[in-house]
Amino acid sequence: MSEQPAVRQTAEHRSGFACLVGRPNAGKSTLTNALVGQKVAIMSARPQTTRHTIRGIVHRPDAQLVLVDTPGLHRPRTLLGERLNDLVRDTLSEVDVIAFCLPADQKVGPGDRYIAAQLAELMTGRRGVPVVAVVTKADLVPRPDLVEHLLSVEQLAKSVDREWADIVPVSAKDGYQVEELEAVLISHLPEGPDLYPDGELTDEPEAVMVAELVREAALEGVRDELPHSLAVVVEEIVEREGSGDPAKGKPPLLDVRVNLFVERDSQKAIIIGRGGSRLRSVGTEARQGIEKLLGTRVYLDLHVKVAKDWQRDPKQLRRLGF
Ligand SMILES: Nc1nc2c(ncn2[C@@H]2O[C@H](COP(=O)(O)OP(=O)(O)OP(=O)(O)O)[C@@H](O)[C@H]2O)c(=O)[nH]1
Questions:
Q1: DSSP secondary structure string, 297-309?
Q2: Is 178 close to ligand 1, i.e. is its CB under 6 Å away?
Q3: Are 84 and 77 in contact (CB under 8 A)?
Q4: Which residue, among 219, 234, 232, 244, has the nearest Cα to 295 in the 3D structure?
Q5: Are 35 and 161 in contact, with CB atoms under 8 Å apart?
């Protein structure tokens, strides 16, 4: 008698890109981290701190989901705002599925309608991109309110003559439905092999992540106008000669030089603080994050510079990497 053949995995392997959009503070970064399971995007209670497109990768035996976290799609007010929106739109037209994040604790508002109208264009056409409505922060509202909210989110699609591919309520905070969302997003990916090697969580250059860590530390507890006026540029990351000793398991020391650009002298004073005290604590906090990220000892050298009106000056924007 011949042996029963082993049950073969017939499910196809899927891979592709998903992009999280939503108004500032909708919970995109937190959700990215919950899906990926490691801190990659930089979290902040402040709006519009995610300047760069940061990807996290969800690895599963049957799929690879590459998450693109974007800055909030918002009405442009400055040249920088316009650039960000262009960047967002370019990214969006290339992904396989879009997750539109709408916080459960806030009514569907003009900001959401603006984004819905933008997405409506992407949802049709040659390669219409499916949009999954994700109701974030579900832990913040009682169940009946959540149901009500889901209905208004459904209505939002109708108002732009479209339908969401799915509607999924989640809480990144307590993990509610995060796996379900993962499965839904994966169901919209095409069949294909892994796009990145296993174990790789982000393909962002280290410098960008270092800059984000410094930015996050520098913005902590400071006034509201500063987030838009602060650009962080990593000048160099170099290993200090003879600093490590692999034989003794002593990791090398990295010299990390970073410039913080603000628009006005008054902002420079805020960042630096009395007698440099604030900058020192920014440095300490950022260094700890960078050491964790790079897995070695770091000497962090921060410089604060004024670049007048950099947000409105195309030349400065280019120099600062936008
Ligand atoms: N209670 C609760 N709070 C959340 C949840 N997800 C995010 N938050 C909070 O909401 C705030 C905004 O979250 P972020 O992930 O930074 O939002 P974002 O959409 O990436 O924001 P921008 O980068 O400004 O566009 C933070 O204070 C988070 O702690 C959640 O599931 N539950």
A1: EEEEEEEEEE-TT
A2: no
A3: no
A4: 244
A5: no
Residue 48: pLDDT over 50: no
Collapsing DSSP to helix, strand or coil, 88 comes out as helix
This complex has an ipTM of 0.97
Residue 310 pLDDT grade (very low, low, confident, very high; cuts 50, 70, 90): low
CA of 88 to the centre of ligand 1 (A): 19
- Highest average pLDDT, of 29-33, 287-291, 308-312, comes from 287-291
Three-state DSSP state, 18: strand
Nearest to 154 by CA among 177, 137, 131, 170: 131
Centroid of ligand 1 to alpha carbon of 253 (angstroms): 34
Which tops the pLDDT comparison, 3 or 269? 269
Q: pLDDT tens, 142-154?
A: 999 999 999 999 9
- How far is CA 320 from its chain centroid? 19
pLDDT of residue 316: 62
Among all chains, which residue has been given the structure tokens 């009514």? Answer: 107
- Which residue from 72, 53, 58 is spatially nearest to 16, judged by alpha carbons? 58
Strands 231-239 and 97-103: unpaired
**Is residue 97's pLDDT more than 90?**
yes
**Residue scoring higher pLDDT (23 or 157):** 157
> What is the rounded distance in angstroms from the CA atom of residue 288 to the CA atom of residue 292?
6
In this predicted structure, the answer to whether residue 207 has a pLDDT above a threshold of 80 is no
Decide whether any atom of ligand 1 lies within 6 Å of the 50 Cβ. yes
253, 210, 247: which is closest to 232 by C-alpha?
Answer: 210
Phi-psi region of 25 (alpha: psi -120 to 50; beta: other; left: phi over 0): left
- Ligand 1 atom at minimum distance from 24 CA: 25
- What are the structural domains, with CATH classification, of the chain? 14-187 (3.40.50.300), 206-319 (3.30.300.20)
What is the Cα–Cα distance from 134 to 98, expressed in whole angstroms?
Answer: 10
